[in-house]
């Protein structure tokens, strides 16, 4: 990605022809740079969208939407964050402590069973087999 003050059409075309995947001229907003970088990363990994899929569940972190078998899911923010974390780490067992660290900040008051409560709520919405407990370790996604 080229970030530059050179905004002439010939310069943009030359930059792209020399191998740049994107060309952004000043002035630009950092949020736009971040969005373009995310798109480049998705394309580099063969993903055309931000959607995460596991079985019949589709989660779109950019749009903050989730669906099960085509039906929209109403997820609370922590449920959404937990589901995204699990889907981004499909195939890995995530320790409860790690999940807690990812879902909460230092300022948050967290009850000792907060993660378990969110897992319970997600299981009610997604099916009891969607999230698997690995006793003494943590959680992972169940079979798709």
Automatic annotation (TrEMBL):
GO terms for molecular function: phosphorelay response regulator activity; transcription cis-regulatory region binding. It comes from the Bacteria. GO terms for cellular component: cytosol; protein-DNA complex. Residues 1-41 form the Response regulatory domain. The keyword Cytoplasm applies. InterPro entries: CheY-like_superfamily, OmpR/PhoB-type_DNA-bd, Sig_transdc_resp-reg_C-effctor, Sig_transdc_resp-reg_receiver, WalR-like, WH-like_DNA-bd_sf. It is found in: Cytoplasm. Pfam families: Trans_reg_C (PF00486). Residues 49-143 bind DNA. GO terms for biological process: regulation of DNA-templated transcription. Keywords: Cytoplasm, DNA-binding, Phosphoprotein, Transcription, Transcription regulation, Two-component regulatory system. Residues 49-143 form the OmpR/PhoB-type domain. The keyword Cytoplasm applies. PANTHER family: REGULATOR OF RPOS (PTHR48111), TRANSCRIPTIONAL REGULATORY PROTEIN QSEB (PTHR48111:SF35). This is Two-component system response regulator QseB. It comes from Klebsiella pneumoniae subsp. ozaenae. The lineage of its organism: Bacteria, Pseudomonadati, Pseudomonadota, Gammaproteobacteria, Enterobacterales.
